[in-house]
Amino acid sequence: MDLLRNPNFDFIRWRWHAIAFSLLVILAGAGVIASRGLPLGIDFSGGTLVVVRFEQAVNEHAVRSALEAIPGDKVIQPYGNPADNEWLIRLPLGGPEHDANLEQGAQAVIAGLKAANIGNFELRSQEIVGPVIGRDLQLKGIYATLASIAGIAVYIGFRFRFAFAIGAIAATFHDILVTLAFLAFFNYDLSLNIVAAILTITGYSVNDTIVIFDRVRENLRTTKREPLETVVNRSVNQTLSRTIITAGTTFLSVLALYLFGGEVLEGFAFTMLVGIVSGTYSTVFIAAAIAIILSGKHARGRPTQAVRPASGGRKAS
Amino acid sequence: MAKNLRWKLLVIIGVIALSVYAFYPPGEKVRLGLDLKGGVHLVMRVQTDDAVRLETETTSDRLREQMKAQNIPGTVVLGSPTEFRVEGISSEQDAAFRQLLTDVDVLFNRTPGAGGYAFTMRPNYANQLREEAVTQALQTIERRVNELGVAEPIIARHSEDDQILVQLPGVTDVGRAKQIIRSTAQLELKLVEQGPFSDETAARQAYNNNLPPDLEILPGTSEGQPGDRPSAVYYVVRRVAAVTGRDLRNSRPTIDENSRPAVNFSLNNEGASRFGNFTQTNIGRQLGIVLDKRVYTAPTINARIDNEGIIQGSFTNQEAADLSLVLRSGALPARLDYLEERTVGASLGQDSIRSGVTAAIGGLVFVMLFMLAYYKLAGFNAVASIAVNLIILLGLMSYLGATMTLPGIAGFILTIGMGVDSNVLIFERIKEELHTAKGVKQAVAAGFDRVFLTILDTHVASLIAAAFLFQFGTGPIRGFATTLTVGLLSNVFTAVFVSRTMFELALSRRQVTKLSI
After folding, report:
1. Which among A36, A96, B277, B383 has most CB atoms closer than 10 A?
2. Higher-pLDDT residue of A279, B296
3. Domain limits at B219?
4. To the nearest 10°, the Cα dihedral for A202, A204, A206, A208?
5. Which of B376, B449, B469 is nearest residue A148 as measured by Cβ atoms?
């Protein structure tokens, strides 16, 4: 069975439109983040998060008034499946006197709910992150991500061409920014789990990019006179069924995770869904396009220069 | 060729067997992280200043006693944790005073001032003390957690030098666990000079608001008759303890003469002889039993006591048991601050596992069915490599003792995705090669050969990324990097080696003219 037989779409023609479209999405995301701020989870902002499950249904007003006495900007919202009667309560970091006794906020929440007598409840989870840790996690997460992207860039630059490395890095940043934009649109808090998901899609996107670059490298070796644009376009078409199958299967299995994986996995799976779409799109329209643009309009360089001698084992056909 | 194939098959079966052995039975060998199993995760900072201050105090106290013994007038004043001053040394006493300093000068820098000296702890000694305080705190917490009977706890240094990470899987009574880990449990037996007073001002007034430097005021609880409401009182006690928790040999919960829960302790030989002399010379006076700077009881010494004592207070049975536990495991050298605390209820952990695993298995089954439908017989090959991949992953993770967390599962998903991708790449390439009208065997061989470099490139790039993430990341990011690394290695093995061997096996039996792909 073949998904597509000899596809021949002119993807590269649309590169400027694609770049403009991506910029639009990223700018819209930046706009939302600028006006509302990037919604940081307590992993990064610090604070207290308590999840409780009531035995019977409780309305929001009851929970809210039970916690009236606690100062600060509280977030009180239902959590997960409504039938579970679960509520999430989030408190910001307290002042310096609070830092000495981190548990205070969580204790006040439990005491408040007990005193209000709105039904028996079970403490499902409680997370308290002090200011020191929040800052630490934030910095280390950013450093780790940037360092790993730089490492990939050096490797691609070494194995392929410099312009390709730039294309791959641009695509990676594109995916991170688009994902952040969608997290902002849909108001998901940035947590450590979501950072793990972003790292996953970074890996996925780079994987996708390398597959196509590899094909370009191979085609550059066998065809001598075509411009880079044509070669890239043919490579994208040649790998198109693979791209669709891989992206499609991954997308559908993560969709299962998103729909049935439970509340803990929801934000994680959402990030992956956005990332898979963005990663597949960016390989064709960002990575390849930027590699072409940077190589000059009809540039293709002399084959010996453009292509490093492969490390053997491949016959030209 | 056939011999070659037999070897390959043996290698594959061997790897599978080893992996299964490593993770079987999964309930025991696959370690689940707190986010999946439930439990407590704590990050604490050791207030190393405490340990440094204690050393400065001890040194200055000893010096004060020596000055008293030699009749050298002068006052000792404590400053910051690393500093103290001695004032009012007359020039004729200066030589005699300096004779006392042989020990002090080893550890402190001395700067002369008007009629005295300022002492500052040498920085390398202070650093050594801080380092020791963290190590000691780590060991003490380890002993306490072991006594609590938590299975597979993690107690380790955390990123910064003075931070300690404690993970207690499966612990449900978080409050109690925290109490036990955190209590400093600094036991001191001190002579009570005067008291009890009803408030601190009264205690101060008894000394005309001029408390001698070798005394201190500590809070306590009144010892009324059983049933009386305890009220806060204050004692004036000697600053230097007769015996401290370091001389403790054992401690266990007991019942006092009013049959209330209490804690009994016994002293080692050195402590016992000091305590014996101390009680003998102070018969008729009050002994303050001080725990973490609080007087629990202040009984009158009726006779010489050698090696045993009792701590009374309004304890519940649980509190008495916990207190004896922390006393047994030794005092913390410094106070602990909590920086981070995460508690996941066991039920939430189980729920997230159940729904997560169900969804993940659903996704996998879907991918496998798709591969079978799309690639027909060759699809079996892909399904087999996914399965072998999973087995190797679980085996390696168990062998390394790595913990499965949510971010770790993210690494899993990426790996499986890349594994499927490798198969798709190879199959699509074989199809292309078949179109160019080569023989089936040649098409398969060419497909694998050509795609091998691509797979190598994608996997090496991801390995580089994983290495950086591991190097620079913290907890969950490291967990992700670990699974990713393990997964990438097993991927290259399954997608290239296992898959190819299976093709070769299928093609070796008969003359194949058409490939089901």
Report:
1. B383
2. A279
3. 127-341
4. -150
5. B469
d(Cα B480, Cα B489) in Å, to the nearest integer?
14
Q: Is residue B323 located within the same domain as residue B236?
A: yes
Instruction: Check whether residue B386 and residue B290 sit in a common domain.
Output: no
A176 and A292 co-located in one domain: yes
Q: Do the Cβ atoms of A213 and A243 come closer than 8 Å?
A: no
CB-CB contact of B113 with B85 (8 Å): yes
Residues with Cβ within 8 Å of A45's Cβ and at least 6 positions away in sequence, in order, are: A92, A93, A129, A134
- Give the count of Cβ contacts less than 8 A between chain A and B: 237
- Please check whether residue B215 lies inside any domain of the structure: yes
Q: For A254-274, write each residue's pLDDT tens digit.
A: 888 888 877 777 888 899 899
pTM for the full predicted model: 0.74
Residues A17 and A113 in one domain: no
Q: Do B167 and B223 lie in a common domain?
A: yes
Interface of B with A in 36-95 (CB under 8 A): 43, 45
> Encoding tokens for residue B505?
């096996």
Q: In chain A, where do the E strands start and end?
A: 47-54, 75-78, 86-91, 121-129
Helices A192-222 and B406-435: crossing angle in degrees, nearest 10, is 20
Domain assignment present for A1? no
Domain at B313, CATH number: 3.30.1360.200
**If you search the block for the tokens 């001029």, which residue do you land on?**
B210
Q: Is residue B412 part of a domain?
A: yes
Is B311 found in the same domain as B197?
Answer: yes
How many folded domains does chain B comprise? Answer: 3
A103 at B interface, C-beta within 8 A:
yes
Partners of B238 in beta bridges:
B215
Q: b/e string for B122-145 if b means 16 or more Cβ within 10 A?
A: eeebbeebbeebbebbbebbebbb
pLDDT in tens, A186-239: 988 888 888 888 888 888 888 889 999 999 988 988 877 788 888 999 999 988
Give yes or no: residues B138 and B177 share one domain.
yes
- Report if residue A314 sits inside a domain: no
Buried-state track A18-31, b at ≥16 Cβ within 10 A, e below 16: bbeebeebbeebbe
Distance from CA of A75 to the nearest CA of B (A): 18
